[in-house]
Design goal:
Length: 231
């Protein structure tokens, strides 16, 4: 998906300048990487709606800066503590022959036909919702698909089980491939119900044993005085 956003270069900087800019419906930002950082401002409404789209966070964006277009990645943005207002935004320039490191979302499919869900009544637990990857800009996927079709009760899908697009590698060190992406678990309510049922069954068994032992204890108590009388 090609996403383009327009920006205007600016010279004024500082807290006061940024505050005045926001009052006019513009968002202060910066574009950095490869060359000197450039201060920019962007229309707030268009930017706000773009930020609500998942692809905007994991795609190579086309930034139209004063009529000149360049490829960038969204690197950071700040929101107002309680208003729906973007306070600042950072973009990084990208080069087509240099790898980028990005966090891309995971899309889970076939959860409804997973054996652990369909047969055993389990629920899917998403341990990870995104993944850090490294690739060339042209190979950057909008998301990575996680197929849950064969996931059984108590089993997990790990990072090493994922089918990554061509040219894409997992970024990270150590045992990142062992990290759990998703698992199937017994619903908490079912576990509690099972525990309660087991406790009730145990209590019933104990009550039955007590009731069965009562006649024998009574007979033994009655026999004791009789034996003493014979003496």
């Amino acid at each position: 998906m090609k996403i383009e956003i327009s920006a205007t270069s600016r010279k004024a900087q500082g807290t006061g300048a940024s505050r005045r800019l926001r009052k006019t419906g513009r968002v202060p930002g910066i574009v950095y990487g490869d060359s000197e950082p450039t201060l920019v401002d962007i229309d707030h409404n268009s930017l706000y709606h773009s930020l609500r789209k998942e692809a905007f966070h994991a795609s190579i964006l086309t930034l139209d800066l004063d009529g000149k277009k360049e490829q960038v990645l969204l690197r950071d943005f700040q929101m107002h503590p309680f208003r729906q207002q973007v306070q600042h935004i950072d973009f990084q320039r990208v080069s087509k022959d240099k790898k980028v490191h990005m966090k891309v979302p995971l899309h889970f499919i076939n959860a409804d036909i997973a054996p652990g869900v369909k047969v055993n009544g389990g629920i899917i637990s998403h341990v990870m919702n995104d993944l850090n990857i490294a690739c060339l800009p042209g190979d950057l996927p909008e998301f990575i698909e996680v197929d849950l079709a064969s996931l059984a009760m108590g089993h997990s899908i790990h990072v090493s089980d994922l089918k990554l697009p061509k040219g894409v590698a997992v970024a990270g060190h150590g045992h990142v491939g062992d990290a759990v992406v998703a698992t199937v678990q017994i619903p908490r309510g079912a576990v509690e119900a099972e525990a309660e049922a087991a406790a009730a069954a145990e209590a019933a068994a104990a009550a039955t044993a007590t009731a069965a032992a009562a006649p024998a204890a009574a007979a033994k108590s009655a026999a004791k005085p009789a034996a003493e009388a014979k003496k």
